[in-house]
């Protein structure tokens, strides 16, 4: 698997030792999440909008209503930038300014392509469901023709991407450790809680293992 090549835009300048273009690392961060923040320019002003994504091979797919500004802007070929962040910990340092967070994050720059055709759109919809909960597609109603018509599916080729990772303790000087405050890391993890059944659901259907024991990545 070829790594990403840093470009003028994706070259990590601030703390470059934390930057990476390792494709495997970038994909592992992307695959642990499924929500990204997409930044684009609307009427000359910057906007950031959160949305779901799915990674399939060397592409990210986004989907949304044909009425969505985000979808319409990206479908027009406008350049955008998206971010995915995993918060791994809160770093308690002896000094106020030494505090930090541990994280793994990815920035992707690009332009989207509209996914045309019912078969390709349906395949992408299936990927969306399966990426979030593997094994779910077979148990749900597929999108209707009308629902597919009202949905824009966009493909984002993963060409320009960077990762940045911080791990470990504070980077304070030894002398700072005379401060009275506790120092260390509070690890953070994005985990599912026990599933809550919909009161309108069929009580005879209990949550299967892929829902009972849900974890990321799928
Ligand atoms: C959860 C979290 C909290 C953070 N908190 C702070 C904070 O409080 N203060 C602070 O200054 N910084 C913080 N950062 C780091 C921040 O994301 C930037 O890396 C940093 O501020 C430098 O910004 P810059 O525009 O000067 O980066 P530059 O190094 O100039 O960015 C150049 C290019 O490097 C890549 N890049 C930069 N940052 C990232 C990233 N985080 N992930 C992937 N690619 C990246 C992008 O492609 C970007 O276009 C935090 C990051 C995360 C994930």
What does this structure look like?
The chain is α+β, with helices and mostly antiparallel strands and 218 residues long. The protein has one domain (16-190): Pnp Oxidase, Chain A. It is 19% helix and 33% strand. It has helices spanning 23-32, 69-75, 118-132, 145-149, 209-212; strands at 19-20, 35-42, 45-52, 54-56, 59-65, 80-92, 100-110, 113-114, 151-157, 160-166, 184-187. Strands 1, 2, 3, 6, 7, 10 and 11 form a 7-stranded antiparallel beta sheet that branches. A hairpin with a 2-residue loop joins strand 4 (54-56) and strand 5 (59-65). The two termini are 21 Å apart. Flavin-adenine dinucleotide binds next to strand 6, strand 7 and strand 10.
Can you give keywords for this protein?
218 residues, alpha+beta, Pnp Oxidase, Chain A, 7-stranded antiparallel beta sheet, 4-stranded antiparallel beta sheet, 5 helices, globular, binds flavin-adenine dinucleotide
Distance between the termini: 21 Å
Number of domains: 1
Uncertain stretches: none
Helix content: 10-25%
Query: How would you classify the helix and strand content by structural class?
Result: alpha+beta
Bound molecules: flavin-adenine dinucleotide
Strand content: 25-35%
What is the rounded Rg?
Answer: 21 Å
CATH class: Mainly Beta
């Amino acid at each position: 698997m070829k790594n990403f090549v840093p470009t003028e835009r994706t070259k990590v300048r601030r703390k470059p030792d934390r930057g990476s273009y390792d494709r495997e690392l970038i994909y592992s961060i992307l695959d642990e999440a499924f929500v990204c923040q997409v930044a684009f320019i609307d009427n000359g002003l910057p906007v950031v909008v959160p949305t779901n994504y799915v990674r399939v091979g060397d592409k990210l797919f986004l989907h949304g209503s044909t009425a969505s500004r985000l979808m319409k802007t990206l479908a027009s070929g406008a350049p955008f930038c998206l971010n995915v962040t995993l918060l791994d910990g809160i770093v308690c340092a002896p000094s106020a300014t030494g505090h930090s967070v541990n994280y793994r994050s990815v920035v992707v720059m690009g332009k989207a392509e509209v996914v045309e055709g019912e078969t390709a759109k349906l395949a992408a919809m299936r990927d969306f469901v399966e990426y979030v909960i593997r094994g779910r597609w077979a148990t749900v109603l597929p999108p209707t023709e009308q629902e597919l018509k009202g949905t824009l599916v966009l493909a984002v080729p993963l060409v320009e991407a960077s990762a940045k990772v911080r791990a470990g303790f504070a980077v304070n000087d030894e002398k700072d450790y005379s401060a009275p405050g506790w120092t260390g890391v509070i690890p953070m993890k994005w985990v599912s809680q026990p599933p809550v059944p919909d009161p309108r659901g069929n009580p005879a259907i209990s949550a299967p293992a892929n829902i009972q024991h849900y974890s990321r990545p799928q």
